[in-house]
Amino acid sequence: MKYYIVFLLIFLSLFGCKTPPKQFSEIPESKSDKTFKDNSSSALEIGYEILSQGSNFKPGLSSIIRTQKELDNFYSVLYGNSAKAPIVDFSKRAVVIAAAGPFNTGGYSVFPVSAIKTGKTIKLVFEISAPGPKDMVTQAFTHPYVIVLAEAEPSDDIFIEVRGDYKGGYGIIEF
Q: Looking at residue 167, what is its pLDDT?
């Protein structure tokens, strides 16, 4: 009889309190799903691609790259010999780096929210994601960054906006 009760308790603890999975419509919208909307009728969303993300950005590096030589140099300083720079057609695109930090723990990241072109001006908006108060994070100094390849002509002015607690990263910058 004693074994039946123990078996029943184990069975109930494993299978008794099952929560149903959330339906797709119940899942809240994530931060990356938000898009900055400009009220101007001539504003167009442009395409962008994330090339790399990390947490070891080195202060003093360029934030807008417009030539392959600059990109090769940037990758060699940031990654050493561990990663080669991608080949980019800079007549149609530009490489944009958004960085934040330093932070005294891990868990922070930077991600693109939108890329809007109005005339010859491009505004790239990034947001900082911070760890929650109960998240387990590493105790190390981090400098989160994201490298983005954006559709841009060489004559376009590019503005970078980083939203959130960027602690010495980039606010709004024109290049």
A: 59
